[in-house]
Write a structure and sequence with these properties.
This protein is 53% helix and 0% strand. By secondary structure, it is mainly alpha-helical.
């Protein structure tokens, strides 16, 4: 009874982390197969109580931001079997998971030193904003985390647009970017528009 697009049988192993600044904005985490020392959970002040879908991901990202990835141990054994079905939170409430991931990303950016005025505008764009936390970002590069976070939010905004609005935004971008930034134009087209164009062709 899974919605279209879900695999019925697969093995997931979390890949080794190479870029911390990218990873703390990434929702990929093998939660059932991740085991913690109790002392570490206590040091991180435990699970955030007002998150209901991504509290485990938030804890994991808080650990990465403070401690880095050097002490994470990966093993090849299969430790957990996880069942997806139409009534599970993971499947039926996916939008709620995405919303909480967005809240976590915004909180990281706020702790990284993004100006208050910008953060207030970002928060106002999120309905029912209910999560705030001060993060220790000792293991992260501040300038990289700001750039990565802003890029992530912009990308999410563009993804939320209709296909027609994406085209309008791209055309507007073309009129504003100088010829010296031609690589940015091609990047924009390749990452955001080419996949959409291919999907349109496939559907015809």
């Amino acid at each position: 009874d899974l919605p279209e697009g879900y695999k019925t049988n697969f093995t997931h192993r979390m890949v080794q982390i190479k870029n911390l600044e990218e990873k703390v904005f990434d929702a990929d985490m093998n939660q059932p197969g991740t085991f913690w020392k109790l002392s570490i959970i206590k040091e991180l002040n435990g699970i955030v109580q007002n998150l209901h879908y991504c509290m485990d991901l938030e804890l994991f990202h808080r650990y990465l931001a403070k401690k880095g990835a050097k002490n994470i141990i990966y093993i090849e054994d299969k430790l957990v079997k996880f069942r997806l079905h139409g009534q599970s939170k993971t499947v039926s409430l996916l939008d709620k998971f995405r919303q909480e991931c967005e809240l976590i990303n915004i909180s990281i950016m706020q702790s990284s030193g993004v100006p208050v005025g910008i953060m207030d505008k970002i928060k106002r764009s999120i309905p029912n904003y209910y999560y705030d936390s001060i993060w220790s970002l000792a293991a992260l590069n501040q300038s990289k985390i700001i750039v990565t976070g802003i890029r992530k939010i912009i990308f999410n905004y563009i993804e939320s647009l209709s296909y027609a609005d994406k085209i309008k935004l791209y055309m507007f971008y073309l009129t504003k970017v100088s010829s010296k930034k031609i690589n940015e134009i091609f990047y924009f087209a390749r990452v955001l528009l080419l996949p959409l164009f291919i999907k349109k062709l496939v559907k015809r």
